[in-house]
């Protein structure tokens, strides 16, 4: 049986599924924040966890330390959204306002064994997501950590800061170059940006802030009317090839990332 956990703090509530450590629903100060989602299509709503890479890997293959690794391909022929979306996490600790889940990643498409802990903590009007990553294997490995929150919006939406750096893409894959760019609301995006450790999303119904630790890149995706995915990432898509934001985690090393979603 799949376990679903609820954490609460006054008028705020988060519902977390043990599959993928997936955030199914988030209510902050009585307001629904996320497009409804489920574990069948976890990146179509809610908030999916993207580890050990975020978004696309070109050709679903890469070379690391002289060895080639192969990943599952999507219909475009790329790998996408990491290796833990459908994996069952163990519940380490749960109480009224926080929960910690863990998973040991061992995959033929990845060079080492990773211990992944995801901790959710809910406050009066915010949710903190923390990642504790440990390399318990014998090899160095490439690491990018990300999340895929899909926020409900109404009417015109905008991002602050507006002036950012945008990844240049070819067939949805970054080519490793950036241009200075002003984000305009109410147009379609499936693009990555360097924004920094704080970003605000506002529309007629909502004003949100995301503050990150070591996750300065964001993917903006507008695949559904009335919602915007604003995805914090430690590195950009295809980082296994372009190396931008890529971290090499060594055997025995621990790495920490986090972000806080706050209702303003």
From TrEMBL:
Q: Which CDD domains match?
A: Aldose_epim (cd01081)
Stored Gene3D superfamilies: 2.70.98.10
Organism domain of life: Archaea
SUPFAM superfamilies assigned to the protein according to its UniProt record, in alphabetical order: Galactose mutarotase-like (SSF74650)
Q: Name one GO biological process term.
A: galactose catabolic process via UDP-galactose, Leloir pathway
GO molecular function of the protein, one example?
A: aldose 1-epimerase activity
Q: Mind telling me which InterPro entries this protein's record contains?
A: Aldose_1/G6P_1-epimerase, Gal_mutarotase_sf_dom, GH-type_carb-bd
**Pfam family, any one:** Aldose_epim
Q: What is this protein called?
A: Galactose mutarotase-like enzyme
């Amino acid at each position: 049986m799949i376990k679903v956990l609820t954490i609460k703090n006054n008028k705020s509530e988060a519902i977390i599924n043990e599959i993928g450590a997936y955030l199914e629903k988030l209510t902050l100060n009585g307001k629904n924040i996320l497009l409804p989602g489920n574990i069948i299509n976890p990146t179509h709503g809610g908030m999916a966890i993207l580890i050990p890479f975020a978004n696309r890997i070109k050709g679903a293959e890469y070379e690391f330390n002289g060895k080639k690794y192969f990943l599952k391909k999507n219909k475009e022929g790329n790998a996408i959204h990491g290796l833990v979306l459908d994996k069952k996490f163990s519940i380490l600790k749960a109480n009224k306002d926080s929960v910690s889940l863990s998973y040991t990643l061992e995959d033929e498409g990845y060079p080492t064994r990773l211990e992944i802990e995801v901790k959710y903590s809910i406050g009066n009007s915010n949710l903190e997501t923390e990642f504790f990553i440990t390399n318990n294997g014998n090899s160095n490995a490439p690491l990018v950590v990300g999340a895929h929150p899909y926020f409900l919006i109404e009417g015109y939406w905008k991002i602050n800061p507006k002036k950012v750096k945008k990844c240049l893409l070819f067939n949805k894959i970054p080519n490793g170059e950036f241009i200075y760019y002003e984000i305009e609301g109410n147009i379609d995006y499936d693009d990555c940006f360097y924004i920094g450790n704080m970003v605000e999303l506002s529309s007629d119904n909502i004003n949100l802030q995301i503050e990150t630790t070591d996750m300065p890149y964001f993917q903006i995706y507008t695949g559904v009317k009335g919602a915007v995915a604003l995805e914090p990432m430690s590195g950009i898509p295809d980082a296994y090839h372009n190396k931008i934001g890529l971290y090499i985690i060594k055997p025995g090393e621990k790495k920490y990332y986090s972000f806080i979603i706050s209702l303003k």
